[in-house]
Amino acid sequence: MESLTKEAFLQKVFNYEQNKEWKFEGELPCIIDFYADWCGPCKMVEPVLQKLAEEYQGKLNIYRINTQDEQELAAAFGIQSIPSLLFVPLSDKPQMAVGALPKNSIKKAINEVLKVPEN
User: Fold this and answer.
1) pLDDT tens digits, residue range 64-97?
2) Which secondary-structure segment (H or E) carries 41?
3) Given a cut of 80, is residue 37 above it in pLDDT?
4) How far apart are CA 90 and CA 26, in angstroms?
5) Residue 62 and residue 45: Cα distance in Å, rounded?
6) Domain spans of the chain?
7) Catalytic residue (one of 4, 30, 32, 39)
8) What is the band of 109 on the pLDDT scale with cuts at 50, 70, 90?
9) CATH assignment of 2-13+27-110?
């Protein structure tokens, strides 16, 4: 799992300063975890995402964005509550899920939204 700054986000995910329409910059589908250090449910999601990052290594990327450090990114995606997970497929529009999702729900989204088959 990699933490993203705004600069890294613009390079690896979506350069919203240059593009009005969604244009994914990545090579692999990804999940972006919008979180904060003080958030209890965020702490429950983190180990699940770490396990998934290992399980799906080379098939998808999992990024984290600290909403307190990167308020502009959180605002750009209209983050109202955390944790919020953004599922970003290669060639489709991203989909947001809010709340501490259980592992099987995240795996289902990886399969259905990101089109990444289970190992």
Assistant:
1) 999 999 999 999 889 999 999 999 999 899 999 9
2) helix 40-55
3) yes
4) 7
5) 12
6) 2-13+27-110
7) 39
8) very high
9) 3.40.30.10
CB 82 within 8 A of CB 35: yes
Beta bridge partners of 86: 32, 96
Mutual angle of helices 103-112 and 40-55, in 10-degree steps = 50
Calpha distance 116→119 (Å, rounded): 9
pLDDT classification of 119: cutoffs 50, 70, 90: low
Q: Which two three-digit tokens encode residue 90?
A: 């290669």
Mean pLDDT of 24-42: 96
Kindly state the tokens that stand for 100: 């501490």
- Count of beta carbons in the 10 Å neighbourhood of residue 55: 14
30, 42, 106, 113: the active-site residue? 42
Query: Which tokens is 98 given?
Result: 């809010």
Please state the pTM of the whole predicted model: 0.93
Instruction: Give the single-character DSSP code of 31.
Output: E
Any catalytic annotation for residue 30? no
